[in-house]
């Protein structure tokens, strides 16, 4: 199993310790690129479809909230990536 597949499987389980950097790698694997924004708000734009995912980068830590992971999961499923 590749690193990409392992990351996707880990993400699907909606773990308590999924980090922002793992989220960035996951979204890049599906063709999303981070767009620069002010503050902690981040947008990820798909290179082909121009679909946008908005997130808040967690701070002071780097652990993503479960509701954010569930939202991302639902979006990726609706877009046909999962």
Give an account of the 3D structure.
- It is a single chain.
- The chain is of the alpha+beta class.
- It has one domain (3-78): Metal Transport, Frataxin, Chain A, CATH 3.30.920.30.
- The protein is 40% helix and 18% strand.
- It contains three helices and three strands; from the N terminus they run H-H-E-E-E-H.
- A three-stranded antiparallel sheet has the order 1-2-3, covered by helices on one side.
- A hairpin with a 5-residue loop joins strand 1 and strand 2.
- Helix 1 (3-12) packs across helix 2 (20-29).
- The relative contact order is 0.19.
Topology record:
Layout: H1 3-12, H2 20-29, E1 32-35, E2 41-46, E3 52-56, H3 66-78
Antiparallel strand pairs: 1-2, 2-3
Could you name the key traits of this structure?
single chain, 82 residues, alpha+beta, Metal Transport, Frataxin, Chain A, three-stranded antiparallel sheet, 3 strands
């Amino acid at each position: 199993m590749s690193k990409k597949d392992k990351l996707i499987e880990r993400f699907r389980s909606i773990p308590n310790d999924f980090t922002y950097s793992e989220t960035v790698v996951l979204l890049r694997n599906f063709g999303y690129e981070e767009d620069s924004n002010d503050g902690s708000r981040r947008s990820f734009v798909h290179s082909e479809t121009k679909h946008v995912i908005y997130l808040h980068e967690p701070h002071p830590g780097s652990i993503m909230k479960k509701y954010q992971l569930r939202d991302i999961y639902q979006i990726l499923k609706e877009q046909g990536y999962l």
